[in-house]
Please model this.
Amino acid sequence: CSPCPPDDTDCVAPGVDHHCDADGQCMAGEPECDEDRDACEGLECGDQCCPSDVDEEDCDDYEHYRCDDEGLCVEPDSSGQDIIGFCPDEDEDACEGRECGDRCCPSDVDEEDCDDYEHYRCDDEGRCVDPESDGQDIIGLCPDDEYDACEGLVCGDACNPCDPDDPSCVVPGIDHFCDDDGQCIAGMVECDDEDLCDGLDCGDSCCPPGLTKEECEDYICDMDGECILPSATSIGDEEICKPGDDPCDGLQCGESCQPICPPDDPNCNMLPAEHYCDVNGECQTSVPICPAPGSCDGVDCGGSCGQGRICNVKGDCIGETEDPECGEDDPCAGLECGDSCQPTCPPDDPGCNLLPAEHHCDADGECRTGVPVCPASGL
Model:
């Protein structure tokens, strides 16, 4: 190349020959060219090529040369990989419909020659590659499919730290168990027992840490969400999930009650003392401080009147398990114009707020505040 532009008459060419280097610069002397892009011009990755500085009659000696994914004519063996490795993105069809780790045959290999590529596998990017070319085994091609020793197990279950598909792994001589974090570790582990019945109903099977599946067959979750062995308690299986009676059910604050021991608590021992229902509906030995009886003045039907009770349609403070009959009765049903009435809020109107004033039935049978104008009798 000439370092002087042809139209620059003032430029004096130096006395040393210049050549284009690998970066396309015109430099003095012989450059070091490690790229041979011209040889792959018009060819695709993996196509056979002949280096540009080789005479055409000598190209047979370079029949193993191939164009790589950068358009260079190179010798595959010189970089420690095969031809397929030069075009990692060009052999995805061979793994179409296959999963990572499945056997594959490179797309440019004839079907009858696939036996020579039986060690090829699909990697996690869907390419058909030779695992040995990357210095790893088949399992290393699929990092997302790594063996999980505690998959499907709970804390305390025995686990195998070695992948059954990995013949090189040696199982250690000490038992391993899954911990709370789902890791398979050596020796006994401490587990949060409360999680053993998480999401399970009373009576469902559960397994305490460190026990085999056979040893866990008789363990069940109780009413408190704990994993217990019924035979170790003083009650039978059918009583474990039987809800106990509420000693204050139907009673008001201050009334006497008879406490009951939980069926799964063999250590429960009630004191021989008088018990009373407190404001929270608990049966206690101390005399409770109870508020005045609930009032429904200004409280809508179905609203709370204290002590866990509600107001009914008539304005009475009743038990919360009773039917308040809200919206079922007409406040003026059976009454005449001018008679007093007790209005009710529609059950589907949460914004309703009745005034604490005297109400009367009007001529239209509506329960309203104030004294209505009623027609004369007999008209």
